[in-house]
Here is the input.
Amino acid sequence: MLKSNSPNLKSWVDVPKGSDFPIQNIPFGIFKTKYLSPVAGVAIGNHVIDLVYLHENGFFDKLSLPQGIFNQKYLNDFLALGRKKGREVRERISELLRHDNDELKSNKAACEIALIPMSEVQMLMPVRVPNYTDFYSSEEHATNVGSMFRDPKNALLPNWKHLPVGYHGRASSIVVSGTPIHRPKGQVKPPDAEFPVFCPSQKLDFELEVAFITCAETKLGSHITTKDAEENIFGLVLFNDWSARDIQTWEYVPLGPFLSKNFGSTISPWI
Here is the structure.
């Protein structure tokens, strides 16, 4: 187990009981405030820690990080340093936040600047998404959808249990939590109609999923083995794959979803 994941750790920063952000979490994200342009930060309790301030004031000097790595609109360049470097940064932040470490705790001036109440920040997209693949990996979900669109007795297609079924979604419509989603329009074929009609979706659905954020670029034609896959995953976010089920029913066969799933997907701001 990583030291930063130990359940015995306690922080000098107040963390309310039941918080999503105890010292064992320390997720990365991008935020801005009334006075700060978008920068990288981590969450602890009800506060966000400004990583630009920590970096510029020597708290990461032993990690040999590139200048300005946290002073960016997205975390992509930081992720590109690799999972090992990400763990080193996370471990260092964990050290600074531990209840028995006075390095940051005793520096009141630094604490007043670096620790920002969550109520004063606006969370932004944590990464620039060049591409994403949506997998169909829940047997129960696949069975339910297969029953909806096909014969319930043959809900799962023969290939489902042998390969990772998925499709490439529209990366440009991925937005951060809290962003309004516009109701999509498309072709729908009512049960008693001879032809489809164009109208707003009446069956807008959502799904709760987990998305993996990768940290390594691959060259065209290359591949990552299953043995090396984990080291190329930086972290996870929650993902909401919005779906227009009535539009999907009509367009689904034979090539799968198109307009029914390309109008918006939501991710949580913290990795």
Summary: The chain has a mean pLDDT of 94. The first strand starts at residue 28 and ends at 32.
